[in-house]
Amino acid sequence: MTGVQTCALPISPLYAYIRREGHDASAAQDLTQEFFTRLLARDYLRRLDREKGKFRSFLLAYLKNFLSEQRRKAGAQKRGGGQVLISLDAVAQEERYRFEPVDELTPDQVFERRWAQTVLQVVLDRLRDEYSVHGQSALFERLQDYQPREPGGPSYAQLGEALGLTEAAAKSAVQRMRQRHRELLREEIAQTVTRPAEIEEELRHFRALVGRAGA
Q1: What is the pLDDT of residue 97?
Q2: What is the Cα–Cα distance from 209 to 165, expressed in whole angstroms?
Q3: 209 partner at 20 to 30 Å CA-CA among 17, 27, 103, 109?
Q4: Which residues contact 15 (CB under 8 A, 6 or more apart)?
Q5: Could you give phi then psi for residue 7, rounded to 5 degrees?
């Protein structure tokens, strides 16, 4: 990992973890804000660049320590407090959390699942932007949800007809999008590990998370 950008900090998984720990929405917002303020103020991200480990694991471990400290203090932190504020769309974070199924997932499992969802959304947004730059937004919207093996779904021939392409061209367009999606996913995951050898391990972990979420 060459460096973690502030704008890439994954707020959603951490907020979901704090909520699943039993904090209400207001407290979770305060805690998430304080967590990121402290994370940046103490320059922990630069320390991570010098150490071995995964960004995902580092953040979760630091969050657990942070929450333990807050419980010991047993005091509410006033939002902001004159410090630099991290962009936290509290309404959006709470709405996402409400879509979490009512099940027996632990806070760690909620964090892991939300992490995967966040990474997927970043990759999808990057892919959408690439198609938009080339004036292919309509093509992207048509192809992004196409699943070649989905029972009852349109065939390549039907997809091509809808797009004004031959069957072969439609198949090629789908394959190019899926390949680029894999490349972008790999790039995003590469930014969360400290050694290239960890990329494949993290990809396997990510696919397992996505598979469980879709079960």
Answers
A1: 55
A2: 35
A3: 27
A4: 28, 29, 32, 88, 93, 96, 97
A5: -65, -15
The residue among 138, 109, 119, 111 whose CA lies nearest residue 182 is 119
Q: Which long-range contacts (CB under 8 A, 24 or more apart) does 62-71 make?
A: 63/14, 63/17, 63/18, 63/35, 66/31, 66/34, 66/35, 66/38, 67/18, 67/21, 67/31, 70/31, 70/34
Q: Which residues contact 177 (CB under 8 A, 6 or more apart)?
A: 127, 140, 143, 144
**Residue 50 clears pLDDT 80, i.e. is over it:** no
Two structure tokens written together for 44: 């922990």
Task: Determine which helix (DSSP H) or strand (DSSP E) holds 30, and give its type and residue range.
Answer: helix 25-41
Confidence grade of residue 26 (pLDDT, cut at 50, 70, 90): confident
| Residue 165, SS3 per DSSP | coil
DSSP string, 36-73: HHHHHHTTHHHHHHHS-S-HHHHHHHHHHHHHHHHHHH
Closest by CA position to 87, among listed 36, 123, 121: 36
Return the closest-CA partner of residue 173 out of 150, 149, 143: 143
Nearest CA among 110, 90, 112, 85 for reference residue 100: 110
CB-based contacts of 188, cutoff 8 Å, min separation 6 = 119, 122, 123, 126
Supply the mean pLDDT for the chain: 80
